[in-house]
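Reagents: none. Just compute today. Methyltransferase domain-containing protein.
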Amino acid sequence: MAIKQHYDNFLAKYYSWMFGEFDLKVRENIDLFKEFKLTPCLSGRALDLGCGSGFQSIALATLGFKVLSIDLSSVLVTELRERSVNCDIQVAQDDIINFPRYLQCERVEIVVCMGDTLTHLETFDKVVDLLEKVYQSLENSGSFILTFRDYGEELNGVNRFIPVQSDENRILTCFLEYQSGHINVYDIIYTKTEMGWKMTASSYKKLRIGVDWVKEKLQKLGFHLSYCELRKGLTTLVAVKQSWKQG
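Predicted 3D structure written out:
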């Protein structure tokens, strides 16, 4: 199933729930951005690619940024609009690769592409295209915060079953099937009903993007990598557009 259909028809309605308490996730991102000293210093404009329901967008707005948030899922875009009525956030439903059309030739101070958004792109060429557009759209000394899962090393056997979230009424797990260049992700939800537990499932593809490959592409563009660590299962990169290189 295509990624948009998977989210709109299946995963989006569980998206915020599977991450836990919404306000806590926003607070975690505020603390993360503060750790990286990301507060408005230049234009104050920020771009959130693959914004989901708004964990990063609302955190950036809380810190004083004027945020443009983009996601392909109509369900998640609607949820973010409802959650951000008092925030300086513009929300657009579109493929993240099309973000430049919403900037109206203005550059931004901060770009974030977090969660596992990068692996949702269809091809490696599209990843390179996105990274190039991010570089071109950043102000000099602007920062790009990127997180993604490194699927380079295969999990085997029962380790391919990943528990995601559960409560007394729902259980969400996923199963990974490794292919050359991508993985098939099967999301499985068990819902408690009067008749017992009901299972529904849906699948989509993710790219198998390696950390070294991403770092090489960023540095080739002219980014300086100021941070690269594994945090809560996600590779977290902070890349700064060097002021001496014209973009």
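The domain at 157-207 is CATH 2.20.25 (N-terminal domain of TfIIb).
Action item: order primers for follow-up constructs.
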